[in-house]
Amino acid sequence: MSSAGSSALEAAKRKGDLLLSTAKDTVKDAPSMAKSAAENPRKATSDFLHTPAMKAALPFINGGLAGMTATTVIQPIDMIKVRLQLAGEGVKTGPKPTPISVTRDLLAQGKFTDLYTGLSAGLLRQAVYTTARLGFFDTFMKALSARANEHNTSIGFKERAGAGLAAGGLAAMVGNPADLALIRMQSDGLKPVAERANYKSVVDALSRIAKAEGITRLWAGCSPTVVRAMALNFGQLAFFSEAKNQLKDTSLAPRTQTLAASAVAGFFASFFSLPFDFVKTRLQKQSRGPGGELPYRSMAHCFGKVAREEGLLRFYRGFGTYYVRIAPHAMVTLIVADYLGFITK
User: Fold this and answer.
1) Alpha-carbon distance 127 to 63, whole Å?
2) Which residues fall in a coiled-coil region (predicted)?
3) Kindly report the CA angle at 77 between 71 and 82, in degrees rounded to 5?
4) Are 81 and 71 in contact (CB under 8 A)?
5) Coil vs helix vs strand at 252
């Protein structure tokens, strides 16, 4: 055998011996590592949470869990909000429903659990949308903080707003199919009994809509959904971050600061996003008439048609209900996300 071949063989043997030795050491240390984890689970958990992969994933995981918790609490209010937005479509005058009358009608037609119609779609939407939204926002803010530290500056409201807008828009595009399924499930009860789809779950809704109307129909209303999300995130995340920054030097307790900041964020999120949420609901609920035409061709067409036929104030119908839906949702989401961020940092 040549000297080159011999040296290559020796090198391979040394590598093999090293790998074998490492494997033996790992197996030998496994019981002590398991024992250490059992004796000090907090340290073992902390070590796991601080691995590079988990540090990158935690903002997304925490955001998703926070959003799903909030949706479970708020779902009945969301159901009432959707029914308010769809009431009196195309009519400027006539009876004006209230949250109480809508709730009464819903309960009269079925049972209390009807208020949770579409919960599976709501949870899927949060698992996708809020996971991405809060995860992107946290990632953007960390990048901005790192850049600010490098230049010895601080993050301003403009940077917070930009991070909120970008995070909301990106997340809304990903979560639109679940959002559409939620609207279809919540509005199904408004149709005559013979015309109802009676979706069994979000999976059933998504598969039937895609099969009957085409896969691209799952992104119906995507434009107002994205704009709504950007407006909502501008109001929610930017004002929450700014309010917390303004309150941090006050005498308020940290938990009270978080609660107050989330209440402020909820108001601005509601104010900026409601008109787009209204249009999103109308676009996602609509179906083709006998002639094959849709009532609204686009976001701009829907805005114009509603303004002409129903009046400008129709866009803010149910603001109180929307705020009661958005503010507690924002508060629960942000508080849970804040808490999860605290215990996993």
Assistant:
1) 8
2) none
3) 100
4) no
5) coil
Q: Residues 341, 342, 344, CA angle at the centre, nearest 5°?
A: 65
The C-alpha R_g of the chain, in whole angstroms, comes to 26
As a residue count, the chain comes to: 345
Q: With contact defined as beta carbons under 8 Å apart, do 77 and 325 qualify?
A: yes
Distance CA 345, CA 25 (A): 31
Residue 3 covered by a domain: no
- Please report whether residue 19 resides in a domain: no
Domain hosting residue 156, numbered range: 52-343
Q: d(Cα 242, Cα 265) in Å, to the nearest integer?
A: 9
Domain count, the chain: 1
In a domain, 59, yes or no: yes
Q: How far apart are CA 109 and CA 168, in angstroms?
A: 36
Amino acid identity at 315: F
CA distance 213 to 209: 6
- Low-confidence residues in the chain, pLDDT < 50: 4-5, 8-9, 12, 15, 18-19, 22-23, 26-27, 30, 33-34, 37, 44
Q: Residue 2 is encoded by which pair of tokens?
A: 């040549």
Tokens of 57: 């994933």
Secondary structure of residue 290 in the 3-state scheme? coil
CATH number at residue 147: 1.50.40.10
110-122 per-position pLDDT tens digit: 778 888 888 888 8
At 80, phi and psi to the nearest 5?
A: -65, -40
pTM of the complete model: 0.62
Question: Is residue 46, in this structure, part of any structural domain at all?
Answer: no
